[in-house]
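User: Can you predict the 3D structure for this chain?
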Amino acid sequence: MAYMHHKETQIASKHPDPAISMPFLLLFIVVATFFIWCCCVGAWLARLWYYDGQLHRKFLKYDIQPQYIRERLVREEEKKPRQSQKVVDVPRWHRDVTTLSFERVQEFDSSSLRHRIFESKRISRLPAFEQDDGGDGSGFPDMPVDMTADEYNEQHFPRRYNFRDLGLSGLAQDDWLTYYHDEQITARDHLLEVRREDCIQMRPGREAEDACGELWQEVAKFLSTKYPMRFWEQKENAERKLYDDDTRESYPLGGPFGWLTLDTMARLVREDFCIFSKSPFSAQFTLLAGTTCFPSGWRLRARVGHSIESQQETILPWEKLPEILTYIDELRNRPLYKRHVAFIQTVRPSESDYTKKYFIQESKDFFSGDISFLQAESLHARIEQQMFRKLPKSGAVVLTTRVQIEPLVRMEERKLRHLAKEIRSWPAHIARLKGRDLWGRAVLGFIEQFPMAHDDASVMDAGEMTEPGDDIDRTSFTEIP
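Assistant: Here is the predicted structure, written as structure tokens:
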């Protein structure tokens, strides 16, 4: 009896009660279901984040096969006999051809079409950036630069300039700025009132503001040093200012610097300023800011913020400017250099609006009027004296321009001979842009006193512009008998 009881106990231990094991089974089922649900929700959330919430669009399928395998498959497919000629239904095509499978593309009969699709699929796998940095590296600040553009050019393209080869000559420090010219100051004040945005422009950013501020400090220092009877520095409420004794106004020398700083410099002196900064990545000079009241055939608003090399239209006063700025930038002692650029323009003898005389934004505006304006009393020599200097702190290069317009009939003989020599030395493309074919015979005929042809003399006599009582010397315009 005891033996039978012990046997039943062993059998019961081997087969537990189903009522006891049922809760553990339910718990396992619940845990497994919750785990599977979490995996599904996690995968759904990951896809939602990866595709920016667009789970129902047609996703791209990337072909990651190497190029040589794809080319080999294309060659093998072309060797096979063509089973059928399939016509591609172009209107049913989706614009995103990168989603087409390799087998679907192989069904196309045109090999050039397959090649274009494969090329599109290859381009779709290339990395894409959100923005282009424009070549200066600003869009990728974390990417190291192995070698700057200056170092690369110095290593592979060494250049050695001489200032005489660039048409430059030395400039004394005292000849940088002037303020005494009633006609030009009057024209500048009027232009700054009616066309301020055409005369003053600045690229947004701290770089342009710092360069303008540094130039303003140099201008104020120069004026207070050279013209101490009119300009001097003073302090008002612990703030440094430049005092103008003629206008009884004071101008702050501290920041912030911007449009008001450029407007102040444009009103105090009769020179124009252009500030150029060199990019260490591309080694190109960009126009940061400018005060240009007397442009010679170019627009400031279209040039600010762009590099000189990227200009689509030729700017006549800026010929050889990249080479000159590079030469000035490489100098360490920061000397002043200058060069002269000559133009010929016509001015009405009785013109009272000075802005039309000095403010020229188009090359065609150098010649205003008809053929009868090609007379000695209407022809003027427009001489730009361009001065270059480098700012010590920011390293920006400043182009300072002084314009002098003088009638040919009042110029000295020495200046006339120099002007004729320069006009004849212009290259063909520069002479064409400056209009030498139009006024060359009249100007050179007046300077060198060679006789004029019958047609030119008759046209000028017919278009006589002198007022009654004017005594104009016309001995240089002799007519061929």
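The longest strand covers residues 379-390. Residues 83-95, 457-481 have pLDDT under 50 and may be disordered.
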